[in-house]
């Protein structure tokens, strides 16, 4: 049975409050908490196909947030901003799915806890390097659209209000590509559009590359795409954007779109980014 480490790093604000009260933020702020719950539930519906582990800060809060089925998740206490035990945590895993993100909201200038730099970049970097060192075969990162569009209005707004969050997400992507540049490992970087609470499995997918498009997508559909990548049903070493289309849902068509993606250009040692990914 494949083993999967799922990142469930719940913030002090309380995931159960976030879910129950339906607070909505753009992807990259606090939407990652809701997406993680959908990913977990999607994995659990697969029966015994996966052995699911959750890296969490608070085991009780994580179990309460997941609700039914939480007993089938093995919770491991840890924090991606503290890399000391990450290699040990990653040992024996077949895949890692990472959708962490910095906590939304204002913080004092001297406060470095849960900032985009420390979570979306350094935390992702710590985890990717530990996973690669441990030989984890697949690393799936849920990022965000518009990370390369520095002059985009929405990007400017998010970067201004939330500590350059998209800039740090892009650097987190680059860290994954560098850590997973070895031929025997594979990474999948998913850039979903603006997230909504619509039902999943209703509309088809619009899959793009190059970070040029805009659109919306159901959180449930993002979770389904992430699980598809965990299973390896996608071109390896790839970065892509995903939105809901206006067409009806078609599993076969959606899967063929993921297989037709182009792999990223190989990472050059000590390079900061892969040029093909920039618009």
From TrEMBL:
It holds the Pfam family NAD_binding_10. Residues 38-231 form the NAD(P)-binding domain. Residues 1-16 form the signal peptide. Keywords: Signal. InterPro entries: NAD(P)-bd_dom, NAD(P)-bd_dom_sf. This is NAD(P)-binding domain-containing protein.
């Amino acid at each position: 049975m494949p083993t999967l480490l799922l990142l469930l790093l719940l913030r002090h604000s309380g995931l159960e409050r976030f879910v129950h009260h339906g607070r909505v933020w753009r992807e990259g702020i606090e939407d990652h908490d809701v997406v993680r719950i959908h990913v977990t539930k999607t994995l659990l519906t697969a029966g015994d196909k996966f052995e699911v582990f959750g890296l969490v800060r608070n085991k009780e809060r994580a179990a309460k947030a997941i609700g039914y089925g939480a007993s089938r998740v093995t919770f491991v206490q840890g924090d991606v901003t503290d890399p000391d035990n990450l290699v040990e945590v990653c040992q024996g895993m077949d895949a890692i799915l990472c959708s962490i993100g910095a906590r939304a909201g204002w913080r004092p200038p001297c406060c470095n806890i849960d900032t985009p730099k420390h979570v979306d970049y350094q935390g992702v970097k710590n985890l990717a390097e530990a996973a690669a060192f441990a030989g984890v075969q697949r690393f799936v990162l849920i990022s965000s659209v518009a990370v390369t569009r520095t002059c985009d209005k929405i990007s400017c707004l998010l970067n201004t209000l939330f500590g350059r969050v998209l800039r740090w997400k892009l650097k987190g992507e680059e860290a994954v590509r560098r850590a997973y540049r070895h031929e025997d490992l594979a990474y999948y970087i998913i850039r979903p559009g603006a997230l909504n609470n619509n039902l999943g499995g209703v509309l088809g997918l619009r899959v793009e590359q190059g970070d040029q498009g805009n659109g919306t997508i159901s959180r449930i559909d993002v979770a389904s795409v992430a699980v598809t990548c965990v299973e390896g049903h996608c071109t390896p070493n790839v970065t892509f954007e995903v939105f809901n289309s206006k067409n009806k849902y078609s599993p076969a068509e959606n899967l063929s779109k993921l297989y037709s993606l182009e792999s990223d250009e190989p990472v050059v040692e000590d390079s900061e980014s892969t040029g093909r990914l920039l618009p």
